């Protein structure tokens, strides 16, 4: 059998600032652009150096789309060995670690309930992030009798959006095949 040479020593540099040159924060769809570039490099057995130079902040949705999504399609060992982050602030690196941890946990047990935070954990987060409005409001609905209904609505709406996105990507694939 013919063996193809490995290209794992070849590197691809991806600069997030080139994806988002006009403003300094990424949006969710920018995460998909980053993911596509990383996935293309991984499919060619290349290592990726991902630069966050000149970016003000990362968001959960960008990290989830750009990086955590990799764990659905590539072996963890390949990701850990072939993806390096540079020009990144420690708090953004911590965010990436948290998002990836959540994704890995989900992939291990997709039907497991989401872990709720204790009162102590919520208070600690509030003290560590006094200017973050979402964290300051964490837990405010814990005793609301309509909260479970709202969560069910959100889950149903997310499934609807996922179906719409899948249909959209399928239509793009069909257009590309027609070309």
Detail the topology: elements first, then pairings:
Layout: E1 11-15, H1 16-19, H2 28-43, E2 47-51, H3 60-68, H4 70-73, H5 76-82, E3 83-86, H6 90-108, H7 119-128, H8 133-136, H9 147-178
Parallel strand pairs: 1-2, 2-3
Helix pairs in contact: 2-3, 3-6
List keywords for this structure.
179 residues; disordered N terminus; 3-stranded parallel sheet; mainly alpha; 8% strand; 59% helix
Write a brief caption for the model.
With 179 residues, the protein is mainly alpha-helical.
Written account of the structure:
Helix content is 59%, strand content 8%. It has 179 residues and is mainly alpha-helical. It has a domain at 7-114. It has a three-stranded parallel sheet with strand order 1-2-3. The longest helix is centred in the C-terminal third of the chain and has 32 residues, at 147-178.
Fraction in helix: 55-70%
Instruction: Tally the helices.
Output: 9
Low-confidence stretches: 1-8
What is the N-to-C succession of helices and strands?
EHHEHHHEHHHH
Question: What is the arithmetic mean of pLDDT?
Answer: 84
Coarse structural class: mainly alpha
State the strand order across the main sheet. Answer: 1-2-3
Percentage of β-strand residues: 5-15%
Q: Globular, elongated, flat, extended or rod-shaped: what is the shape? A: globular
What profile does the largest beta sheet have?
A: 3 strands, parallel
Cα end-to-end separation? 34 Å
* Number of beta strands: 3
Radius of gyration over C-alpha positions, nearest whole angstrom: 19 Å
